[in-house]
Amino acid sequence: MGVDPIPLSADTVRALSSVTTATLTTVLLKKGLRNVWMRGARPLKKGQPRLVGRAFTLRFVPAREDLATPASWGAPISTRAAIESMPEGCIAVVDAMGVTDAGIFGDILCARMRKRGVAALVSDGVIRDIDGVLETGLPVWCQGTAAPASVAGLTFVAWQQPIGCGGVAVFPNDVVVVDADGAVLIPYAMLDDVVQAALDQELLEGWIMKQVHDGMALPGLYPPNAENKARFEAWARSRS
Fold it and tell me: What is the DSSP letter of 67?
């Protein structure tokens, strides 16, 4: 169903794994994108690693009694079928409409995702069976937990189609980076430019932090004026 997944290069994963989501929001802001941080997608467990992957999208709509039934779990269009299409290394991004009283996935589904090599689950909704989900080792970013199943409040309708997650438009094969600050989206077409700009920004901010530790005042340093830009560029050249 929907768009075929595209692999993400190991070099890109490695590069973005060294960049915080906070830095990425700054880089994307400079490129004109303000709405890239998914509201409500918080780390389920403290200490989850920073992860990078292509978005594999799933979409729910409001529950309709004739469709949102336990029998629907075995239908051709179901979360179970969607999981079997998830490629290794993807990040499953789920549009749950911000619903917080119906868990979209539980321990068995998360265990299967982990087995298939899915990197993480991101949603603006909630999960259920939290103890079992944590035992699977699948990193999850969401709004928390709820005991009721998804069909108590949602109907699953599609995967690998454009969705909205936490107020952000997510298209299949966009890139998602998650860390302790949440989940940030990088549009597919902007990936190469964003990666290089993010690496440059991280290098600059690392240098600025060193100046701060050395006692330098912030005005003219953060952001750097012409003099400090020249100092930074000379330092960066000396490292290459």
Answer: T
Question: Which strand (E) or helix (H) includes residue 22?
Answer: helix 21-30
DSSP state of 79: H
- DSSP class of residue 127? B
Q: Which amino acid is at 199?
A: L
Number of residues written out for the chain? 240
Closest CA to 98 of 72, 124, 74, 116: 124
Domains and CATH numbers, the chain: 10-188 (3.50.30.40), 193-239 (no CATH)
Specify the amino acid at residue 8: L
Closest by Cα among 8, 5, 3 to 195: 8
The predicted-structure confidence for 136-151, as pLDDT tens digits, reads as follows 999 999 999 999 999 9
Provide CB contacts within 8 A for 140, sequence distance 6+. Answer: 43, 44, 45, 48, 110, 120, 121, 122, 123, 127, 133
Residue at 222: amino acid letter: Y
What are the tens digits of pLDDT across the range 187-215?
Answer: 999 999 999 999 999 999 999 999 999 99
Distance CA 192, CA 11 (A): 11
CB atoms within 10 A of CB 120: 23
